Each structure stands twice: as C-alpha cells, then as structure tokens.
Amino acid sequence: MPFSWLLLLFSLVLGSRLWVLSLEKLAGSHDDARCSQGLSCHLWDDVLCLLERIEPTKDPVLVPTKLQTEVVLRCREENNCVPCVRVILHLTVQEPRKEDPEEGGLREDAELTSRPWPRNESLHAKVIISFQAHLSDRCVLVEVEVPAAMVQPGQNVGSLVFDCFKAPVGGEVRIWSYTQPPYQKELNHTEQLPDCIRPELQDSVPSCWGIEWSGVLPWFNISAEGDAIQLVLDVSAEQNYVLFLYWNQTRNFSTRFHEVLTGPQNITLNQTDFVPCLCIQMWPNVQDAIRNSHCPFWEDPRAHKNLWDHSKLKLKFWGTTGLSWMVEAPCPLSAETVLCWKPRDSELCHPLPLPLPRENVTANKSQDLPLLTVQPNICVQVWSGGKLQIQECPQEDILGPLKDDMLLLETWGPEGRHSFCAMETSGCTPLPSTAHTRAALLGKQLLQDIQSGQCVQLWNDTGILWACSLQKYTHERWVLVWLAFLILTACILLLLLLNRDGMKGCLQFLKEDYRYGGAARGRRALLLYSPDHASLERLVATLATALGQLQLSVAVDLWHRRELSALGPLAWFHAQRRQALQDGGVVILLFSPGAVALCQEWLQEAGAAQPPAPTPDTFAASLSCVLPDFLEGRASGRYVVACFEQLLPPQGIPDLFHAVPVFSLPSQMPDFLRALVGPGKGHHDTWRAHATRVSQYLQPALEECVQLGSSSCL
Question: Which domains does the chain have, with CATH numbers?
C-alpha cells in the first residue's frame, strides 16, 4: 500500500485530532502572502478592521468562496517557536449583483453584467483577512490582481495563502474574510490550537518549558447527590494548580470561583452557578503557564433545568403601542418568544397562531415588537425544546385588568379572499362557523363589528389581529336570561296554583337540587392525566372547566404552571392530593394510551433493583404514590377512573385500576358526575341534565382530538 494511503488511514483513525501529525515549521518572523499561478498579490499589514457599505457594481468582482486554516510553527530558532494559523482562501470571479433599495444592500439574485468585460484590463480586488483571539485581534489586507484572460464569471481563478497569525497555545481563535468593499457575506472559521500536551510543543515552544505534563491536566469528575453538585479534582500534592470557574457568556466572562489548589479537592457548586455555560479553567501555578479550559456542562440536563429556573422574563411597555421584553439569563439560550392571548375567564394563555412572528431569544438583550395597540390580555411566552419555560403577563396596575374581549385573526388566501378565526380554548375557530362555541354563536355580530369599526386593531403585517369587546353581548345575554327566567317563573307558579299536588313534587325536586349544589360546592377533585399531545391537553382543560362550572373545586396542573415550576411535579401532586383527601375530595385518574404505557412501564421497573427515575410529568411522578394505594387496597373511596371511549376503550385500562369505579365518557357521564359528588346526592333528572350539558361542552374538543388521527391522539 502506498505511503500516502497509510497516512490518510492513520489520520482517519485519529478522528478530529489531526494535529498529531508533525507541524510545519516556518523560518523568520515576517508575514507573507502568496497567490497561485497566474495571480499576483501584495500584502498590506495591520489595517483597520472596518466593514464598508456594500456597493453596487456593473463589472465582475473577485470574492473568496472557501476559507481553510492549518496550524504551523513560526520559529526564529530551531527551539524558539510560537503557534501560528495559516489561512488559505479560494477565489472566484462572480457576476455583479443588483442593488435593492428596499433592503439597503444587494440582492441575492444576481443579474448578468450589462456590458462586456474589457479584455485588455485586469481585475483588481482587496481581500481582508481578520483574526481574533482572547484579548487580541488583527487585520491584514491583500491586493490581488487577476489577468484579463482569466476573468470569466463563475470561474475559480486560484487561491491565496497568508502566513500567518500568531495564536496562543491551547486557545481558540476566529478567522473571517471578505472583500473591500464587501460584495457578499463574510466567510468565517473557528480554529482550536493544540496545547502543551503535545511533545513537539514542549520541545519547541518556550512557554511550554518547565511544565511536567502527564498527558492531561488534573482529572476531574462531577458528583451529584440530591441537590448537591460537587466538582471532584485529583490534584497532585507536589504541584499547585489554579482553578478558575466562569460563565462563558456571549460577550464577556463572569467569574464564579478562583482559588489555588494543593492536593485533591472536592468543590461544591452553587445551584445558581451550575448552568450549561459554566466552564473550568486550570493551569499550573507558575509564571506564564498555559491555561486549559473545559466546558463540560453544555449537554447536562440538570444544568439546563437550573438555567431556566434562574432565568427571568421582563416586560416593558412604551405608552399604548410599544412592547419590549428581555430574558435575563446567565447563558446564551436556544429559545423563541411567542405572543399568547389570555381570556378573562381562563387560566390558560393560548399561543397566537402563525403568521404572527416568533422571535429567537438573545439573552440579556431587549427585543421590541411594535404593536398598534397594547392589550392587557396579550402575554409573552418563552419556548425551548418544545416546552413552555417562562410566561409573563402585564401587571394590572400598568394596563388594567383583563378585558372581556374576543381575539380575531384576519388572513388572506391565494386569491385575496379574507378569512377570520377566533381564539378559543379549543384553538382558532373559523368564522362563520356552526360549532357550539361562544365565538361561533357570536360570529356574525363580531364580523359586523369589524366592518363597522368597533374592534381595535392590535397588529397589521402578514395578517391583522382584532380585539372585539364582548361586553355588550354579555349585557344583552343577561337581560334575555332574566327576562326568560321571569316569564318561566310566572308560568310555573300559574301551573302550580292550578295543581297543588304538582307543587309538592316541584318543591321536593328543588330541595334535592339544592342538596346537590350544596354537596358539590367546594368539594375538591384532583385531575391527573398523561400529556400525550396538545389536543388532549385542550380536551382535559375543557373537562376541568366544565366540572368547575358544576361548583366542584378542580385542581389540574395546566392551571398551576408557576406553582408546579417552583415545587416540582411530585411535591405539587402530594400537596394537592393531601388537601383533596383531607377535605373529603376525590382523585380522578383520566386514562389515555400514554397513561396506560406509563403505568405498564412503572410496574415493570418497580420490580427491578432501581426504582423508576423522577420525571417532569405530573402523572408519571404521581405513580409512585398512586400505584401503592391500588396495590395495597387503599384506593376505594379515594379514586375514580375514567377514559374517553373514542380514544381508549375501558378494556385497555390495566386490571389493577378496576378496583374502583371505571367510567367511559361521555356515555357514562351521569354516573361519573354522581361519583364525583357522592352517593345519595341529587335528583336523577338533575344528573341527566348536567351530564347532557357537560357532554355538549366537551364535544368540539373531543372531535378535534379524534380527527387528528393516530399520529396525534393514539
């Protein structure tokens, strides 16, 4: 096998550490720039790193299209060297781009030159190469001349090599390049230099002399017991090391710990400091020692949890049209902000649908969203990894209390047709609609209010947001309700006067109905479910709202996000369960395919040596308490099991949970409601009427969940 193939195979085995091959040594201390055959170069050193305005041109331009780097050694003597970064640029002739006055620059869709290139003229270009390391930066300019015969648009004319930028041992440097004036976006590259672990650097670089290297710096490990996080360092007793802990933030460093260590050490990290961008820097306690940095927590889920626990979202309002927010966090964030709408009669805040903008979060930087009008019902959410992390709403003393408004989104179709939808708990309801929701019933009146100018415009860009007041419809509804009530009461009294025996039966009915209301009023019910998907969560929220209208005090984690985030799912469940059972309440287990899978997984792992690990899901976290109650026969009278028959048949619920009443909804809704209130409470006709109303209220959300099919619901 040829030697070149052996060398290639050896480099592939080594993976990313290609610098184990011998570094090239350059003699002298002067920089040099050279071009490939046919091109001529002239180096201008130490120029200002200024980015000029992108200028239009009608002639072809020379631009760098690929940037490569390699580490070499620059040596004054054989053993007196410093690391150096060589830059290789590949140059291409491109067509000019047309200026776009709306974007203030050049359009990407380049047009062919409007006049032919003079064949007797060469093409000149100024190429800027910029270098940035810790506490230092530098720029050089290279003038490149391309002969007229080589000026062919779209052709790679050759390469430019610059030797070289001095760099710190073991440091990380950033290099970028562009033309002057810049005709396209800059090219950039980050290079990690080898440290003094490498033998040839120990022999050739003076700053590595006198340091005894054993291959790596002192070994460290992370130890976690409960909430305590410890950094375990195996430091040699014969040599002192300096330990420096810092947050590697976007624009600066934030020192968390700095100390000289002698011998093995265990250092306890503060919970507030243990975040993904926490980095460790260590070096021997000698003059001009090389520093090695490690950032081992970028993928640690505990660090990410601490990051969000200690991040804050702050809102600021500028009059009635300006809204800005800032996420204060110790580390850069991979997240986006979303506007949401919080109705007056709901604890949930519903993210506004597209095409409203979603902004990427830049930590500790204020971001603005120009609104035509600011509403107290508009809140800001921060989402990361598909989960809601932070939510903040305007304070009541700034914009006033929540308004009884309906939010409508107006969009345009491909043929310019206008369409409207209204934000509700079940989603965005198209208008007009035949659904049995509040927005659907008022759809025509709301559209008339928009046309007559009675609605307030909140935002106007790729769509229009309208806020329409429902106050007048609320007043009209109550007037009609009271009028109907008075007429009905008069009719009933008239009939009862004609039939005294009927009056006795009616009084008995009212007595039983009053007893039902008294029994249900204030009785607590803790609703547990598995959050399989968003449509199921909306269905659960609709069920909890319906039970709350029957004067049951329902607790569900959807309505306690802030408290749940502060306590954790297990502690929140224990507090709610204890309070419900002490007050004579009940725990509702709402089964879905996801809940069945969690129970089966828990039962399998419970028999193993290690118990199931804690999870952020309230239902999964509660199984450590719920399942023992069923296994030890303590569930009777405390628990009620239910499922939606269109999502999961009752036979799919594990046999263990059939020790308590199991109800299939909505067909067994009357029995389900009677079980929640207790035996012997209420009249049979009263239960049937309540069950019919609850089933009708649930139907739109249940149909939406079923229509999504197996990919979303099952």
Answer: 16-98+118-204 (2.60.40.2160), 212-304 (2.60.40), 313-471 (no CATH), 514-713 (3.40.50.11530)
